[in-house]
TrEMBL record:
One GO cellular component, as annotated: plasma membrane
Protein's name according to its UniProt entry: Thyrotropin-releasing hormone receptor
Region forming the signal peptide: none
Family in the record: Belongs to the G-protein coupled receptor 1 family.
Length: 402
């Protein structure tokens, strides 16, 4: 990310330096504090929810944790230094701060782009190739991919330790320090276009193609049957009528859940494209201009779009995922104790949920609508640690004849 755009304006006309207006300082500091503060709290909640809630540890959510960590780095390394730049008009963190903060900015940006690409590919395999997904879309493989993503971006961004430097800007009335470049700005054009291509153009083109294929499967054609789900469905119950009813309801809830998850992730990608467009476009345009375009208010707009992109994802999860919404409420202890009443599930549904979770199987592949509902637990079934097959068969027939 271009230092001039984020930190200070490397003013080329070194005449009389004038400080930013009071209006600009108030607006920039206030908006940055609100957006970055909310984003930091939201992304920390996403990480805590997934790490502390067993049924939330799915491959897709692992990629969302990676994205949340990257967004936290962007908000802290790019957002918070913007406050001091607005207040003091210069770089106040010294040479070490210039190198490390510039490195962290690019690390967070590139890691977030790679995380978005990773969960896009994971969704494509899960929806369009469900048989392969049994082996490819697993929790362990997701963790390995995340490690590879961070290893790649960590090594790729090391170059900024050698490309960034403190520069003294000498005006007629003052001398200021800015975090800038070691060599002439024009030599950075290949780096700008490499970043633009690898971490913006390619992810968006890939996401457009893959989400188009996903939409064709989800909304135009019936979903391919999942062999694992089919086997689990036919193992439940003793009557043919009960088997058929369970199969149809399970398939419908799975399809609805897949659509909902895919819509949520597609919204994340779309916002990534639009909120990063002003800054990416500015960098490309400035690469061809002799004097870069550095209008103060437009630069602030580009910055705020970047910060908003890193802060808005937890809001999307809360708005579009019932499972995330319930987990957020539980983390904040927002649900009153009186509202935790036993769910009016039939014994068949109770047995189904208990059997799924007792096997140690987390919804690695396809979270279902059943999993998004707060299922019955031991506190609702005191003294009922195990349910025999005989009991479940009786409840199945009761459900069928009811």
């Amino acid at each position: 990310m271009e230092n001039v755009t984020l930190f200070g304006n490397a003013n080329q006309t070194l005449s009389i330096w004038t400080d930013q207006s009071i209006e600009y300082k108030v607006v920039s500091v206030l908006l940055v504090i609100i957006i970055c503060g909310a984003g930091i709290v939201g992304n920390v909640m996403v990480i805590l929810v997934v790490l502390t809630t067993k049924h939330m540890r799915t491959p897709t959510n692992c990629y969302l944790v990676s994205l949340a960590v990257a967004d936290l780095i962007v908000l802290t390394a790019a957002g918070l230094p913007n406050i001091t730049e607005s207040l003091f008009g210069e770089w106040v963190y010294g040479y070490g701060g210039c190198l490390s903060i510039t490195y962290l900015q690019y690390l967070g940006i590139n890691a977030s782009s790679c995380s978005i690409t990773a969960f896009t590919v994971e969704r494509y395999i899960a929806i369009c190739h469900p048989i392969k997904a049994q082996f490819l879309c697993t929790l362990s493989r997701a963790k390995k991919i995340i490690v590879m993503v961070w290893a790649f971006t960590t090594l790729y961004c090391v170059m900024w330790f050698y490309l960034s430097d403190i520069e003294k800007m000498i005006y007629n009335n003052i001398t200021l320090s800015v975090c800038s470049y070691k060599v002439a700005r024009r030599y950075y054009k290949p780096i700008y276009f490499a970043d633009f291509t690898l971490f913006y153009v390619v992810p968006l083109l890939l996401a457009s193609v893959l989400y188009g294929l996903i939409a064709r499967i989800l909304f135009l054609n019936p979903l391919p049957s999942d062999p694992k789900e089919k086997a689990q469905t036919w193992r439940k119950g003793s009557c043919a009528e009960s088997k058929k009813h369970t199969k149809n309801s399970s398939f419908g809830s799975t399809a609805a859940s897949r659509r909902q998850v895919t819509k949520m992730l597609a919204v994340v990608v779309i916002l990534f494209a639009f909120l990063w467009m002003p800054y990416r476009t500015l960098v490309v345009v400035n690469s061809f201009l002799k004097l870069p375009y550095t209008d103060t208010w437009f630069l602030l707009f580009c910055r705020l779009c970047i910060y908003l992109n890193s802060a808005i994802n937890p809001v999307i999860y809360n708005a579009m995922s019932q499972k995330f919404r319930a987990a957020f409420r539980k983390l904040c202890n927002c649900r009153p104790q009186s509202s935790q009443k036993p769910a009016t599930y039939s014994m068949a549904l109770t047995y189904s949920v208990i059997k799924e979770t007792s096997n140690g199987q987390s919804p690695d592949h396809f979270p279902t609508e059943m999993e998004e509902l707060p299922g019955p637990t031991n506190e609702f079934l005191p003294g009922r640690n195990k349910i025999s097959y005989k009991e479940s068969s009786m409840s199945d027939s009761t459900l069928t004849t009811a």
